[in-house]
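User: Could you check the structure of this?
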Amino acid sequence: MKKLLVFLFLIVFAGCAGTQKKSVDEKFDAASYFPIEDGCSWIYLVGKGGAKKTQYIVKVVSKAENGGMIAWGVKTYSYIYKKDGVYNTVEDSYILKNPSLKKWDLKNGIAEIVESHDLSGNVIAVKETYPHKGFYTISHYKKYKGLIKFEVYSLKGDNGSLIEKMELGEHLCSDID
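Assistant: Sure, the predicted structure tokens are below.
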């Protein structure tokens, strides 16, 4: 009898293992976490700890049906909304993916969804680890605002040490319709 139960367990387990798929949250809307709208800009405060913070301005250059172009300081990047996330065509990688996918590969590292510590449930945090470069970043995307915080940490030590932090000061959008 014991052998029969073990045999049935193995058959059921094998059947379940063969049918498992990665669950994708069909409700995920990448555009709501990385909004690209004409006339929008973000003003970030950049610094570390109590040091004087400098301003960094990011602006939408153009909007397309499935994404658009954003100027980050003097560099311009093109982004495309895909079913499973936001894709940076210049860097040739995803910056944000559906949280149900948990991890994805980058050219020189790995990205993963991590706990955001935001109690509203409207923030997705993405950790990008670059072992060969000796640092990792955490980007916090808030629904309908976009990137609200970006932190860079050294890989040295248990949790790394903060190298730099960029936090959203203002999110401005003008109605240009």
